[in-house]
Recover the amino acids of this structure.
């Protein structure tokens, strides 16, 4: 096929311009709070905005129709462009002078992973702290989805962008028009963010800490303004508020919309949502009992730490209130397993998503039945409906590819000198957009000591996981480029 590269560059120009505008907003926040290193931040915003506008203006006359393949190109290269220009605030201010480290931090932000190479977060100026949070907030729901919601210039091509950006989103739409769906989801996202900001401020956090943690909680990112993450806030109320919004961030936003409309039966009948609650309950109970038997922690704190850390990892947020690797070997293994779960499809979380695990499990059970009744037709059912073999095949392929990339990443990191725990943990945590891992990059450490080649690999893994494998990997197949 013949690609319309002009429209690809045109939309990427729009995305980069939006990124520049967000950098200028971060400059404004820095001016309000501490006025440190404002000029470099201003130049970063101006440079990014100008580059985006130049790219957009030079392709302004491009045809507006976006085909499916072009949608994949826009999303993949759009995210890469955002991450490249997103490094400018770190580079221009000099707080992360190394491009590899700046790129890793930026990819971690836009993919809402929350992994960091920074060793003294509280030493950053407010403009950069806010930029980290804003990247995570926009990346959590997806800047391309935002573009589809607010820019009718994309027209019918917006459907291709929306589905390439959010391939895990439920096929059940909020509204028959994809642009209206994106707008409604973003409205809920904004409402949750504002609500958490207000509640955190009432609970005693500063204005700056409240807005930053509201941005990164609902985005299930985990970037914090504190070196100790949420452990820096000893208030149980603050931690319970964040627990609630991490849980909401991990819930399918389509279901949330139905809840707002009063259609609660559609929420609680959803099998994935029930599985989500079940997994959190079981893992939290095991963790709670493990803490009680292995530490001197009071009952309420043990319950709070267990619930907080389980939800934080399941939703791939990555906030930390305690070192879960220090409780017992059991919790280390348990949390490592959770790196591969993810929360609900259509949420801001990363990971493989629970619906894939659920359907794969149902298919395994059905396969045992087929072995006993080989002439019977035994379909996999979800929500009372039969799931087509094609979907089961796609899910099986996804899980296999996911595991293969995890193993490959661990092997490369081990080859680069990382120990067993660090290699496995970093590979799984970045591919699943979790953030904190085990080993060298555990919950009380960071990724600063990972080999520079490893950082580039893990940056690729974060993008791969955020866009759910196929969006990026399809570009490496000859079928994609064949005419």
């Amino acid at each position: 096929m013949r690609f319309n590269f002009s429209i690809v560059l045109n939309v990427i120009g729009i995305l980069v311009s939006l990124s520049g505008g967000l950098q200028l907003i971060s400059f404004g926040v820095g001016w309000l709070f501490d006025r440190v290193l404002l000029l470099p931040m201003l130049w970063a915003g101006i440079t990014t905005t100008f580059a985006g506008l130049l790219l957009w203006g030079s392709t302004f006359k491009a045809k507006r129709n976006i085909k499916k393949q072009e949608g994949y190109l826009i999303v993949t290269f759009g995210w890469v462009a955002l991450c490249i220009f997103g490094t400018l605030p770190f580079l221009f201010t000099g707080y992360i002078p190394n491009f590899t480290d700046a790129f890793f931090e930026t990819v971690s932000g836009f993919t809402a992973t929350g992994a960091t190479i920074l060793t003294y977060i509280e030493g950053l100026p407010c403009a950069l702290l806010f930029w980290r949070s804003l990247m995570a907030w926009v990346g959590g729901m997806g800047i391309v989805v935002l573009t589809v919601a607010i820019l009718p210039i994309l027209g019918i091509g917006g459907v291709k962008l929306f589905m390439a950006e959010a391939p895990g989103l439920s096929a059940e739409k909020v509204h028959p028009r994809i642009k209206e769906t994106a707008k409604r989801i973003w409205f809920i996202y904004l409402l949750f963010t504002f609500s958490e900001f207000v509640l955190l401020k009432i609970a005693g956090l500063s204005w700056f800490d409240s807005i930053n943690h509201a941005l990164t909680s609902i985005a299930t990112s985990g970037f914090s303004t504190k070196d100790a993450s949420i452990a820096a806030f000893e208030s149980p109320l603050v931690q319970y508020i964040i627990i609630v919004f991490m849980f909401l961030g991990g819930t399918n936003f389509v279901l949330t919309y139905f809840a707002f409309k009063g259609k609660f039966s559609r929420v609680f009948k959803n099998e994935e949502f029930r599985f989500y609650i079940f997994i959190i309950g079981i893992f939290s109970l095991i963790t709670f009992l493990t803490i009680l038997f292995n530490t001197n922690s009071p009952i309420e704190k043990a319950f709070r730490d267990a619930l907080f850390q389980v939800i934080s990892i399941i939703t791939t947020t990555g906030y930390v209130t305690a070192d879960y690797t220090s409780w017992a070997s059991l919790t280390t293994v348990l949390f490592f397993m959770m790196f591969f779960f993810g929360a609900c499809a259509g949420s801001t979380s990363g990971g493989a998503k629970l619906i894939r695990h659920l359907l794969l499990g149902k298919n395994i059970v059905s396969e045992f039945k087929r072995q006993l009744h080989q002439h019977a037709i035994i379909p996999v059912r979800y929500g009372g409906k039969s799931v087509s073999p094609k979907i089961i095949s796609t899910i099986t392929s996804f899980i296999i590819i996911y595991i293969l990339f995890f193993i490959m990443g661990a092997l490369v990191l081990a080859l680069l000198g990382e120990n067993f725990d660090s290699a496995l943990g970093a590979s799984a945590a970045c591919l699943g957009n979790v953030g904190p891992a085990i080993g060298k990059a555990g919950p009380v450490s960071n990724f600063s000591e990972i080999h520079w080649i490893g950082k580039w690999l893990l940056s690729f893994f974060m993008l791969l996981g955020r866009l759910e494998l196929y969006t990026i990997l399809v570009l490496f197949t000859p079928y994609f480029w064949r005419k």
Summary: Strands lie at 380-382, 385-387. The two ends are 4 Å apart (CA to CA).
